[in-house]
UniProtKB/TrEMBL annotation:
Residues 13-74 form the Transcription factor CBF/NF-Y/archaeal histone domain. GO terms for biological process: chromatin remodeling; DNA-templated DNA replication. Residues 105-134 are annotated as: Disordered. The lineage of its organism: Eukaryota, Metazoa, Chordata, Craniata, Vertebrata. Pfam families: CBFD_NFYB_HMF. Heterodimer with POLE3; binds to DNA. Component of the CHRAC ISWI chromatin remodeling complex at least composed of SMARCA5/SNF2H, BAZ1A/ACF1, CHRAC1 and POLE3; the complex preferentially binds DNA through the CHRAC1-POLE3 heterodimer and possesses ATP-dependent nucleosome-remodeling activity. Within the complex, the heterodimer with POLE3 interacts with SMARCA5/SNF2H; the interaction is direct and enhances nucleosome sliding activity by the SMARCA5/SNF2H and BAZ1A/ACF1 interaction. Within the complex, the heterodimer with POLE3 interacts with BAZ1A/ACF1; the interactions are direct. This is Chromatin accessibility complex protein 1. It comes from Chroicocephalus maculipennis.
Amino acid sequence: AARLSGGENRLVSLPLSRIRVIMKSSPEVSSINQDALFLTAKATELFVQYLATYSYKHGRGKEKNALTYSDLSHTAEECETFQFLADILPKKILASKYLKMLEKEKRDGEVGEGDEEDEEEEDEDVTVGEDVGS
């Protein structure tokens, strides 16, 4: 196995010191072999490159000639290979939509309540949406 010299550090773009810190943050890791550090850095770099390329090709990147967060989150949600990233790259929504979703879930949880209470909650939704949007 090749040892890392000054020239071999250029084979990876990610800072090896940061990767070492992340690896050492695991309680099971006591020491890190230089080869393992290099391979982890290179594998991470290739994974990020693949995710970006896939997201660009399958998103709106071609239209805008740019890779956006929404392209990445769409890839994480739609592509089976990247679904493990769905919690890390959630779709962005407006605060007003989020508040409406919370209110709907709250209403759905109160099954069997009277119609008058539902009407009052709908009035509250309009007020909340107006406050957040302005």
